[in-house]
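HOLO CASE FILE
Compound: ketopantoate
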Amino acid sequence: MTTTRPNVLLFGVGSIGSVYAAILILSKRCSVHVVARSNYDALQKQGLTLRSSKFGDHEGLRFDGVYRTCEEAANSGTRFDYVVCSNKALLDAKPSLSDILQPVVTDGTAIVLLQNGVGVEEPLHEAFPNNTVLSACVWTGAKVLGPGEAEQFNREGLTIGVDHAEALSAEQEQKQLDVFVEMSRAGGSDVTVCDDIQSERWVKVIWNACWNAVTTATQLRTNRFLEASPQAMMLSRAIMGEVVDVARAKGLTVPDGSVDKLIEQCTSVKDGLPSSMLDDYVAGRPTEVEVILGTPLREGLRLGVPVPSLIAMYSIIKALDWKNAHPEEAKI
Ligand SMILES: NC(=O)C1=CN([C@@H]2O[C@H](COP(=O)(O)OP(=O)(O)OC[C@H]3O[C@@H](n4cnc5c(N)ncnc54)[C@H](OP(=O)(O)O)[C@@H]3O)[C@@H](O)[C@H]2O)C=CC1
Ligand SMILES: CC(C)(CO)C(=O)C(=O)O
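Model generated. Tokens follow.
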């Protein structure tokens, strides 16, 4: 740690980045810097506005630094104790997240992942073998209302743990985790520290692999998809079951009854749910298909676990991504 007041840099100030930037500013325990793209001007001029049932409404929250790129952040001369990834997890994006973060990850920087999906940590460990990686599951709902303005709704919870780096001592990683947890709690986040964050992430991805994929493939909310045929529930259970099998084959812990619980959590929502993957597809943005379906599928194939439903859903979502990226060639 370079100072008693850590420097935190958030990469990406969309829905989740806005919520956690606000939490960290409200904590008053750290200096908060951001790398922003489409909302750079708004954040620079007016600061951040968060509307939240849990944290209240805050207008004009100010940052210690707003930058257009990681190079610009590094050139400010600030050394960052934490670099928080609050962008979408796009494993096949070029340049890669690791390449983009190179200028701001220096000796002692801890990288914090606030992203959905699995397999996000490996490329970062490869690129930054001597840096701590803290991995988190974010349990909240958030959306962007306009440039520099976001809304947080439903509950807010952060389940976070160390994704151990071979070259580092567990003690060093734990210290960096403790400070991040303390700052987040001081800002009002409901933090749960977890010794087995990979199991947590895989349990969360059971949900996303199923509901995000079927809503995007059909462009329907979950209730409409499930009403359309009795086979829809069979497919949903098959997708979830395959993710559970792959996670267990990896030696991870998935509690018995997880699939039933996740089905019930979805079907109990009267009007059903859309998904972030569907939103991304409709907006013409690349989806998080690789971390939500690609990693479970590849791990299944590697471990000899049958994953026919994951292959089907992955290939459909990849085709939809391709369609968005090649509108001319996609015409029928
Ligand atoms: N939203 C939610 O309710 C939840 C989201 N999550 C997960 O959180 C993660 C973040 O999602 P979410 O906040 O919804 O995504 P958003 O699309 O709302 O925000 C992502 C932000 O990252 C910015 N960004 C991407 N690339 C760059 C770049 N090169 N330079 C600067 N900024 C960049 C985007 O900028 P620009 O505006 O220019 O595109 C955007 O502001 C995802 O993994 C998601 O699955 C998890 C739980 C709930
Ligand atoms: C917001 C929620 C829970 C809805 O499916 C989700 O995880 C997603 O869309 O990615």
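CASE NOTES: The mean pLDDT is 97. The two ends are 57 Å apart (CA to CA).
CLOSED: yes
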